[in-house]
From TrEMBL:
Organism this protein belongs to: Oryza punctata (Red rice)
Family: Belongs to the isochorismatase family.
Isochorismatase-like domain location: 14-176
Pfam families reported in the protein's UniProt record: Isochorismatase
InterPro entries, per the entry: Isochorismatase-like_dom (IPR000868), Isochorismatase-like_sf (IPR036380)
SUPFAM superfamilies: Isochorismatase-like hydrolases (SSF52499)
Protein name, entry field: Isochorismatase-like domain-containing protein
Gene3D superfamilies documented for this protein: Isochorismatase-like
Length: 179
């Protein structure tokens, strides 16, 4: 990942959204549903977060956490929760951040229940009241959560919305690159 030249003031207006980098989605030891491509990007995501911290970029950890019953999950996924195979169940090991990723002082944790980090959350308010105008997005999955969050960020008039391609992943590389 090549460094981007930017003044310190510009970084204070930038936030990094780290999306769904949880064990259920990227750790095949914890979850049979984890993406191997998600596990593969973990070192790059870790490096991107470290660089963002050095630059003073606001880190937002966007996580999926669902009620064990699945009543807050999309209708098309509810059957997984009734059979006990739901992902991102609040308080479960699978809902934890992947190994090596930690929420530090000054970071922000946002819980979402849909693809977009903006849908039915207070993310836009948190970012705008923090003076954030630019977003850098990393995490999983490109065709769902990454894409929808990026589209919503553009619709909400963020100046620059960047997706770090080697710090994002989809179930299949061809889907990731096509998006």
């Amino acid at each position: 990942m090549a460094p981007v030249a930017c003044s310190g003031d510009e970084w204070s207006e930038t936030a990094m959204l780290v999306i769904d980098m949880q064990k259920d989605f990227v750790d095949p030891v914890t979850s049979s549903a984890a993406l191997l491509t998600g596990e593969a990007i973990l070192p790059t995501v870790t490096e991107a977060v470290a660089i963002a911290r050095k630059r003073g970029i606001f880190i937002v950890w966007v996580v999926r956490e669902h009620d064990p019953s699945g009543r807050d999950v999309e209708l098309f996924r509810r059957h997984f929760y009734s059979s006990g195979k739901g992902l991102g169940v609040e308080g479960s090991k699978g809902a934890e951040l992947a190994d090596g990723l930690t929420i530090e002082d000054g970071d922000y944790k946002l819980v979402k229940t849909r693809f977009s980090a903006f849908f039915a959350t207070h993310l836009d308010s948190v970012l705008k009241t923090s003076g954030i105008k630019n977003l850098v997005i990393v995490g999983v999955q490109t065709p769902n959560c990454i894409r929808q969050t990026a589209f919503d960020a553009v619709a909400l008039d963020y100046n620059n919305v960047a997706v770090i391609i080697d710090a994002t992943a989809a179930a299949k590389p061809e889907i990731h690159l096509f998006i």
